[in-house]
Structures are given as structure tokens and as C-alpha cells.
Amino acid sequence: MLELPGTIRISEATCSNEPDYVSVVVDDEDAGARVLEIRLTHEQFGKLLAASRHMDCTILLNDSGHVGMQREHKTELVPRAPGFDPSDDECRAVLAPFEEDGWQGSVSDLRNHHRWRGPEESEVHFDRWVPKKGGDGDA
């Protein structure tokens, strides 16, 4: 069994387009990734607190491949051409030269004028997930 440092949170979700629910979320701290989310109705959550031992629920499992990995983060100044059009295709093309070795740039950083550094550069966050060093599955 894989042992990970993690956190658990319980919160209430108030929805306008579906019934309200209680969300129980488990996160992998090293990967900065959600492992799973369990959604319960208020009635189910109340029964759970009253020591009910078995109940059906909805489980949203993270299948991104990030769980059990180590998240790495860096920031780069990315040049933007004059007349930059922040469409998805244009952003992916601008970020592509920086997205080597598994790095993934934030399109929202590139579009966000608060992250622009002068007329032709953006400060963009990049993340990647790599195998953890040490333990099982050494990298």
C-alpha cells in the first residue's frame, strides 16, 4: 500500500443547479493533487456522524496520474509578441517552447494582465509531477 502525506477537509457545498451536499476531500500534499472527493447528502452525513457503518455515496477519484508523485513548481518570464491574442491556440503556442521535460504552463497566467511584466512579457507559473525520490519506486 502506498503511504502519502495528506490532508482531509469537510465542507458544505451550496448549489444553485443541484441539491446541496457535504464534500469530504482527501489531498496528496506532495503532489498538490486531490486524491478523492466523497459527496454525501446532508442526511447521509448526519447518519455517518451517528456511527452508521455502511452507506452508499458518490466518489470522485483523481485519475490524473499525479497522486503519489512529487509536484515541482517554477516561474518563468514568457515573451509575448506585440498584438498578442490570448486565444487558447495562441497561448499554447507561446508556452510550447517552455513546456519541455513535463513542465506545464498556466494559460490563465499568460492571459491575466496582472501577471504581465511590461508590454511584452508575462510571469507564468509552470508545474510538473515527477516520481518521488526514496522509498518504493525510486527515481
Characteristics:
139 residues, four-stranded antiparallel β-sheet, 2 domains, three-stranded antiparallel β-sheet, alpha+beta
Structural class: alpha+beta
- Following the backbone from N to C, one meets helices and strands in this order, namely EEEHEEHEHE
- Number of E strands: 7
Q: Which strands sit side by side, in order, in the main sheet?
A: 1-2-3-4
Question: Approximately how much helix is present in the residues?
Answer: 10-25%
Low-confidence stretches are none
Query: What is the overall silhouette?
Result: elongated
Q: What is the chains' assembly state?
A: single chain
What does the model show?
There is one protein chain. It is built from three helices and seven strands. With 139 residues, the protein is α+β, with helices and mostly antiparallel strands. It has two domains: 6-61, no CATH class; 70-131. The chain starts with 5 loop residues before the first strand and ends in an 8-residue tail after the last strand.
Write the layout of secondary structure elements.
Blueprint lengths: L5 E8 L7 E8 L4 E8 L1 H8 L8 E4 L7 E11 L8 H8 L8 E2 L1 H5 L9 E11 L8
Antiparallel strand pairs: 1-2, 2-3, 3-4, 5-7, 6-7
Give the gist of this structure.
The chain has 139 residues and is α+β, with helices and mostly antiparallel strands. It has three helices and seven strands, in the order βββαββαβαβ.
